Amino acid sequence: MSTPARGTAIAVKVEGNTLGLKPSQLKALERLGTRRYPSVGGYTLDQARELCAIAFGIGRQVGLLIDRKGRPTMILVGSQKGILIPELDRARLGSARLRGVRLLHVHLAGEGLSEEDLTDMLFLRLDSVAALTMDNLAQPVTLQAAHLLPPGAGDAPYDVLPPRPYDRVEEDMNALATALEDELAREGEKLAAPGTSPSGREKAVLVSVSSAPRTAQEASLDELAALADTAGLDVAESVVQRVASINPKFILGKGKLADIEVAALRAGASLLVFDGELSPSQIRNLTEVTQLRVIDRTQLILDIFAQHAATRSGKLQVEMAQLKYLQPRLVRQDRAMSRLMGGIGGRGPGETKLEVDRRRIRERIGRIKDELKELRKRRAAARAGRARAGLPVVSLVGYTNAGKSTLLNTLTGSAVLAENRLFATLDPTSRRLRFPSDREIILTDTVGFIRELPKELKEAFRATLEELEAADLLVAVADASHPEVDGQVAAVADILQEMELGDIPRLLVLNKWDAVPEDLRGPLKNAFPDALTLSARTRDGLSTLTDAILDRVRPGFGVRDFGPRPVVPDETDLPAGTP
């Protein structure tokens, strides 16, 4: 391939609304690409007159994207009222860097920079944007320019300069851009994706768009923030928008969407997380408009499960859930989809799965289903063995982070992973709990529940949740100190009913009672009169729990005969459990 000779201009493609233009008009536009535009002022006077004459002649806005060497990289043709910038190369974008190009364009009606111009500069990280105005004789009149500011440097993330005569512009456009990049580098700010916090974690803006009451939206956003923290994200800002109806294309209006994007830019965030499930087209539209990665609540939960899955069965179940979620979203393999499918930090199937077609994905899901069938067979055999041994099964269920694993560890002396995070436990864990007089039960810990649990996870974790079907008693553990404990208890009851487990005897336990203020304990007891109160951490109330468990699995209540009713031990008398 031959290279152009020194001094030979490289052709610059004309993009945009070129339909209906005459060949002579296209030639005039192409000639703009042969010019070199100075940094100081942004153009020569002849170049300003040429731009205005061409725009006047075709009756459409004309723009140039100019690099820091003064070379046009793209010639744009818009409508009478605006100009559309197509997808740009992101190769130069990085920490504390701008795009490396500035926009110079002509406005036909004499107006200055529009909100759309400033939005383009924000979203695309342009060095600057400038608008030439002209009179009815196609002569340039004024120029108005704007450039970005470092985060926190002003009330707005950009500085809009006042209009001035087109022949008296003295700003050095390149100097402004390099000064901004130097300032960003000194302050350690992140202007371009990926936006990260000083801790190195990715920064995200949480968005709730719903017709629900604002208090309900805020409570749901608090839970989304906890999920984001578990996933390794730092929440830069949360946005709540109440709407009468959801915009089918962009979820919310363009004005509010622009506010969200500005908030993301100022916070240095590279990710938008929507509270709810988005359709594939909505994610694609939001990604294309904002130039940010967009995920929904379902993908966030799937990403958390992908991080925490440790066993072979857990990894298989998570992978199947992710593939089923991604399958309808594999519409096209463009840059927007590569940002979408990467998940947080690129975990999960990600971009490698974009390279396979639907047939191969279906084949992979089929193989995973076969492996999970074998897993269910082995677990069924284990359950049958426990049944032959005559041991009753008590399963701990409840909302995620309610303290089920801590309670299992306290009762059995085990060392199951227990963290103050959502979904710290994914795989079922069973331990023997031995009482005096050689009485034993099997105590099982299961994956935590959450409101609006993704349907992909419900199906994928069928092998895990089948452990509940063999239970003689369900101990529903709730976090009594959580402000939404009422809703969480109701959510667990609804999920159990959906799983057709509502007929299994159930015991409600209010855990973390030591963290409940004294003035709230009375109302909680009134709200849940049949619940037991305890603290798995301090061991207070454990004897009451063991007494209640033995009451419910003794002859006449449970399904097995275990002999005489044993004496209930104190907490300190409970021996360590054995796997």
TrEMBL record:
Main location: cytoplasm
Domain of life: Bacteria
All copies of domain Hflx-type G, residue ranges: 392-557
InterPro entries, alphabetized: G_HFLX_dom, GTP-bd, GTP-bd_M, GTPase_HflX, GTPase_HflX_N, GTPase_HflX_N_sf, P-loop_NTPase
UniProt keywords, alphabetically: Coiled coil, Cytoplasm, GTP-binding, Magnesium, Metal-binding, Nucleotide-binding
Pfam family membership, one: GTP-bdg_M
CDD domains: HflX
Free-text function comment from the UniProt entry: GTPase that associates with the 50S ribosomal subunit and may have a role during protein synthesis or ribosome biogenesis.
Family from the record: Belongs to the TRAFAC class OBG-HflX-like GTPase superfamily. HflX GTPase family.
HAMAP family, sorted: GTPase_HflX
Subunit structure of this chain's protein: Monomer. Associates with the 50S ribosomal subunit.
Protein name from the UniProt record: GTPase HflX
Source organism of this protein record: Solidesulfovibrio carbinoliphilus subsp. oakridgensis
Designated gene of the protein: hflX
